[in-house]
Here is the input.
Amino acid sequence: MEILSYEWLMAHAQNPADNLTRAFAGVIHNSRRNKVLEAHVMLGLEEETFESLMENYFPGALQNAGMTMPSVTAAPGCEALRGDEFGDLLDLLLEHRTQPDQESEWLAFAIATACMGNDHLYQDMGLPNRQMLSELLSGYFTSLFVRNSGNMKWKKFFYKQLCDRTGVNACRAPSCMVCDDYLKCFGPEEGPAN
Ligand code: SF4
Here is the structure.
């Protein structure tokens, strides 16, 4: 079994049935395989914090891998240019935490990392469906979750929030109902993202 793969992480999971555990395993797995996410191989966390997450959710995993942290740290590259975007998404999520606890902070880093990917958010998080992602968002970022009353695709919704905060209107139509891009923002989140 490949080190730090989803299967390998879940074999070390403290609670394999836990959706948060599955989300962390999915993002760590994808960040090590997806070129787009490789700058966030530790979910954007400091080394010590990442080790703490691993010990809480996948105890013994790093030790069993014989892994020292520099070997899981991505080399700096062009992806660093997306640091501002990552930081803005992270700030948005952290502002809307239901509880100011460690779990929701780690999940915010994992979601912001997955937002850097090219697929639907639940896919970039390695989750089996959008419903599981929605349940996590509802529980850990309740005020943000309820704000998406139109059931917009999650990545589109997050970026729309960032645009609204800065007063940028990237939409070409006066309203969603008459917009040619409606299905890109609100269509079903199945299959490839567009
Ligand atoms: S559907 Fe069109 S108007 Fe609505 S958020 Fe998307 S791009 Fe903007």
About this structure: Residues 6-186 form one domain. The pocket of iron/sulfur cluster is lined by residues 160, 171, 173, 176, 179, 181-182, 185 (CB under 6 Å). Residues 7 and 89 are 28 Å apart (CA to CA). The chain has one domain: 6-186.
